[in-house]
Amino acid sequence: MYSTYMSNTSPKSTKRPSSARTSSDSLRRGWTTGSCATAAVKSAVHALIYGTFLDPVTITLPKGQAVSFALSSETLTETCATASVIKDAGDDPDITHGASVVVSVTQTAHHRGIEFAAGPGVGTVTRPGLPIAVGEPSITPVPREMMCQAIREIVPDGGFRVTISIPGGEEMA
Fold first, then answer.
1. How many beta carbons lie within 10 A of that of residue 4, not counting itself?
2. Which of 90, 102, 111, 147 has the smallest C-beta neighbourhood within 10 Å, fewest atoms?
3. pTM above 0.85?
4. DSSP-based three-state secondary structure for 116
């Protein structure tokens, strides 16, 4: 397991992305962990390339809807950018509601693809049967593609290592 998680990030805010209720009888919309990670990835890559974090950061969901997220922390060093978003699960009884989704991004010199790594609180696949190879971080295909698309919006052909952490994730699981 490769980790670039930086423990010296300081909380910027605890603002959450705006959730919406479509009517008084409907549930309040929340966001997936993958959407939160995608927003953090996009902002971190922007900071690594251009020196500034996007905040708020807008991403495109799989069905084409654009949504914005506020960062809760950000750290930039010469070789790594780390951003986090606080997950708002809406009215979904998701154990990760309120969790910090932390993403650290580094550039890779050896290839032009995107590698995913599990940081603290993110599991790895241990048995065959999922659409992800054994040994890979437990990040399903749709969030992986969302993150790759967000990165390609900023850098069409760069190589990056994306490490996702959920502080306290092991205890939540």
1. 19
2. 111
3. no
4. strand
Q: What is the mean pLDDT of residues 94-119?
A: 85
Structural tokens at position 90: 């809406």
At 113, the pLDDT band (50, 70, 90 cuts) reads confident
**Burial class of residue 79, CB neighbours in 10 A (0-12, 13-18, 19+):** exposed
Residue 14 — very low, low, confident or very high, per pLDDT cuts 50/70/90?
very low
Rounded distance between C-alpha atoms, residue 58 and residue 75, angstroms: 19
The amino acid sitting at 165 is S
Which parts of the chain fold into alpha helices (H)? 33-50, 141-154, 169-172
Whole-angstrom CA distances from 142 to 17, 62, 78, 119 are 20, 8, 30, 19
pLDDT above 80: residue 133:
yes
φ, ψ of residue 85 to 5 degrees: the values are -130, 140
Strand 160-165 relative to strand 114-118: parallel, antiparallel, unpaired?
A: parallel
Query: What residues contact 14, with CB distance under 8 A and at least 6 apart?
Result: 72, 86
Give the pLDDT of residue 13: 42
If we measure between CA atoms, which residue out of 155, 152, 166 comes closest to residue 96? 166
End-to-end alpha carbon distance in the chain: 18
